[in-house]
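Lab meeting, action items carried over

1. Structure of the two-component assembly. Owner: GW. Status: complete.
Input record:
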Amino acid sequence: MRVKMIGNYFEILRGGINTTFQDKGRENLYHIGIPFSGVMDNRNFLLANKLVGNHLTAPVIEFAYQGPHLKYTGDQLNFVITGDVIFKIKKKDNEIDGVCYQSYHLENGDEVNIISTNKSVYGYLAIGSEIDLNFQWNSCSINTKANIGSNNGKKLDSGQKINLLKINSNKTLKKVNYINSKIENIRVIKGTNFDYFSDEGKKIFFEKEFVVSKLSDRMGMRLEGPKIENIINTNIKSEGLVKGVIQVPADGNPIIMLSDHGTVGGYPKIGVVVSVDYDRLVQLAPGSKVKFQEIELSDAETLFKLYEMDTKNLLNQI
Amino acid sequence: MLKNISNLGDAALYCDFGIQVNKATNLEVIKYFNTIREKKIKGINNLTPSYNKLIISFDLRVTNFSEIKNKIENLDTTIEQNKNNKKIEVPVCCEENFALDRDRLEKKLNLSYQEILTKFFDKEYFCYMTGFIAGMPFLGDIDENLRTQRLETPRVKVPQGSVGITEQFANIYTFDSPGGWNIIGNTPLKVFDDSKEKDPNLINPGDTIIFKKISRQEYESKNDR
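Predicted assembly:
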């Protein structure tokens, strides 16, 4: 009997902890209260798309910790997972352990089960196909806080379907050798309220260890450590925030703004994490120990250029 | 006037318009904001105007701090701008279940709720900025006798539509959100509408707001959320 195909799709058997569609995010909307959103780890996003032959900023599935369990129905396609991720691919007769940065074919009935990220937070699943998604302000990125983006701005849940529009015709399997490096020293430029803190507080900020709290998400990373003493005012008049800003509220524990952050805030800014460290910063799992290290603007700019060149070189190897 | 430009990290400019928070300072911020938007300067990918600051974010792949700083310092802000600021009436119901901080405000301000509402509805408000959550307007200035601090412990969930006051400002919660402002009522208006991509905010910086007290019945009939 011939099975009539009514389209190619994934069925979500398990949604995972925080699974969303993401792309490069949205620009020029801070002034109305909408942050960039977009992928947390940009390098792993670009690599994922390149490995399945998508254009570099195509939508991907981002997951945190435990990822989704998906069942595929349809014609053969390629998929890849990037990050530091433990996952299984279930074929008709066997189940294999998947390897990151290596694309695989999926056939009708196959399953991908993303067990968890390994000592990291975010992983990416790219599908070699156009996905049927709703875009808002030129981005599919799901912002669960404002319910903006594809899937009505909500994270993916079991029972839902991901419909595919056009599978990439080139199904050559690709891989790249890449290992995510861990970060222990987060480099920061002094913030605009650096002088709100006591000499002792400043010393603590740059010398002591802080631990990533489990109250961290796409909006912000909370850190716990010795209290950073404020000697001027624990509030400022609300003003704009950017990704990487480290605010210190009255309790003395720093919070780092991440991709879905509130666009304005009223806590003093002790520092800003530099762009070059952002991809690795977001991968710090709760319990990780970190130190802040001061860096000059010119060095931050140079290091970012080198990082971008490194990313380009990796992409060129695929 | 723009007093000082510094860097906020490696991908943003921090423009300081002085410590005064008033309409004149804020209009200067908005003037820069509008001018920069119209100029479409290469590499700038976000602008955040607030009471007395303007943050300019840029793509470090395309440009850098000194390039953008130079452009902002040489910006001609004297060009006549199309001002399309609006006057918007916002209905607010302050009856039971909506006025979450009625008791607290009566005690803190030493006024009856009736007196609080009279003072609140008796003024026109100016929108200084929008943000924190999508579309939330920061309005001012409220009557001097109504000024009080945030809640000591912020609510985990302030209901959508809540109208809050703190210090010299009022705001409207466009979504269910954590928050610590004193809630005096709730509006049935949709203040943020993401189906209108071009203009999702009902209220924009520079607009004038008039709050209008409505009954529970009027609230129900106007509820378009």
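2. GW to write a short summary for the group page. Key points so far: The mean pLDDT of chain B is 94. Helices of chain B lie at 23-39, 65-73, 102-109, 113-121, 216-222.
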